[in-house]
Amino acid sequence: MTFERDAKTLEPPWPFTGRDDELELLRRSLAAERHGVVVTGPAGHGKTRLVTEVVRGADCAKVSGTPETRDIPFAAFAHLLPEEVSLHRAVQLLSGVRTLLVDDAHLLDDSSAALVHQLAVHGRTRLLVVATDGAPAPGAVSRLWTGEVLPRLPLKPLPREETAQLIAAGVGAPVEPLTARRLHHLCQGDLRLLRDLVAAIRESGELSLNPDELMWRGPVPVTPAVRERAGDALLNRTTTTEERDTLERLAFSEPLPLALATLPLQALESLEADGLIQVDARSEVRLAHPLHGPVLRAGAGQLRARRLSRPAAECESALDAERGELADRIERTDVQDPAGPVGDWLAAEKAVPASYATVRSRFARLRGELREALSWAREGLRGTPDDPSCRTELALAAAQLNEVTTAGEAPPGRATTWLRAANGDTEGALRSATAPEARGEGEAYVLYDAVRLGAPHLVADRLAQLPAEEAEPLARHADALVRQDGPALDRAAELLERRGLLLFAAEAHAQAVPVHRDPRAARMSRSRAMTLARRCQGARTPALSALTLGELTTRQRQIVTLAAAGLSNREIADRLTLSIRTVGNHLYSAYTRLGASDRAALPWLLEESQAAQPA
């Protein structure tokens, strides 16, 4: 037997990261003595890792289905049952098992599937059942959730933020936002593919530390592991010559789609039926998986690649059109959908000009994606180090992250407002915001700075006079804040959120908290503000500084601080010489006062509290 790599180079599994809500839900379900839960989801989404974490340290029996044993009765339970056992006897023998983990339940033999179903019906054994979406499963398994015997938890793809945390935990360093976005897009939720990709990039030497974050630029390295994992649907399908030619044309057309009318219809229908292509509302065709293009291009010769590749001028024209569309959406205060496939592809594979990077940075900043805004500004500065627009965008994003040193020496103008605000000089920030030289992406946003800094009376009338298409959500926020109308501020925040302006929405909800007369409404505003702020990649603006722990009692602050550090209720109780019930009651009261729903918000709140304290 031979191995592809020396055993010493094989890496251990990445640490379990993310899935906090799902982990807590499953643990609560088991602690409540319920009959169990079925966890479903696509292959590679981390179902087995999640349930393994749930039962870690617990007394739990484990069984698993395999393709090789689907025809052998009770094969999955062979280590728990004697030979030649009946279903009735198997149920009796397993009645003493307190918790049973059933992995790959869709691969169980029929007898094992029937046994799992009977255990679920009898209810004496708590079950954690894992099944893969789209895979054929025995009827006894699928009836667990379709027949409502057990509740079902469909596992969604790991969010981009948690994917970045997972990569950082696996490689031991933070990941630059554009790199995290690209990897998240390429793996499409398949965490096995994600690990193969990261390993391939590290082996290629393209994963660099810049300056303290891991950054990846350049083509996708198509290693055998990546090809096998990502190209499975392509490699295991017999294609006609016409279909293969169509797939290659699509692969070499990236980052631009091809028009439906330019491709053979019969081949397209067959490829679409097999899930290999996608046709959008504009009748444009793309490959269904983002890694199919690199896999197909890696298998083509140089001459074929030269013949099929799009001319550079077409990409430049498409990039200009994309920049214009993004700029128009910024002007219309509508950034609700992320956009920019051409820019994403070029930034990853080649480079983008500073003019495009400026608009992408601004678009990301308005969406509250402040660290992505930093990355896009740096992309522009890589090719044009002194570009004033990119330097301004870098400073604006850094200042709203309260990272003044990152901002460097920003060009005079609007960035000065937020640098002063970050340094605690609110009066100076307001003077800068209303000065004639304060210019940026448009008059509405320049005036709106004063609203975000808590002085809406300086600009509300001027915002109201601007065209509604450009300034309506900003003007509504200003008017509600002038009138100190909590419900109106919440409504303005909801409009801002619908437009994709998440940081502005978080600030509006935060400003509603102290003006609400109803304590319940204030708690709801605080909860919404925190939820949105956590999506803004570490934003630290004056409006958000009010979301602190100051209104808690000393004991509540003490317990919340320990909980945020990761201690369990039992560990907190032991440290503070309290009962577990008392700790739980204090945490519940703290959640109620803060508008938080669980521990996930506590580290963020502690950071906000510390940031709000004077130096």
Instruction: Point out poorly predicted stretches.
Output: 1-10, 611-615
Mean pLDDT: 87
Proportion of residues in β-strands: 5-15%
Helix content: 40-55%
Distance between the termini: 64 Å
> What would you call the structural class?
alpha/beta
User: Which outline best applies?
Assistant: globular
Largest sheet: 5 strands, parallel
- State the total count of DSSP E strands: 10
Helix tally equals: 32
**Major sheet strand order:** 2-3-4-1-5
- Radius of gyration using CA atoms only: 28 Å
Can you describe this structure in just a few lines?
The chain is α/β, with parallel strands linked by helices. The chain has 32 helices and ten strands.
Describe the protein's topology.
Blueprint (H helix, E strand, L loop, with lengths): L19 H12 L4 E6 L5 H8 L6 E4 L22 H7 L5 E5 L6 H13 L3 E7 L6 H8 L5 E3 L5 H12 L5 H11 L3 H14 L2 E3 L4 E3 L7 H7 L1 H4 L5 H13 L4 E2 L5 H9 L3 E3 L4 E4 L4 H7 L3 H7 L3 H20 L9 H9 L4 H13 L3 H14 L4 H13 L3 H4 L6 H9 L3 H8 L9 H10 L7 H6 L2 H15 L3 H13 L3 H11 L6 H15 L20 H11 L4 H8 L3 H15 L7 H11 L3
Parallel strand pairs: 1-4, 1-5, 2-3, 3-4
Antiparallel strand pairs: 6-7, 8-10, 9-10
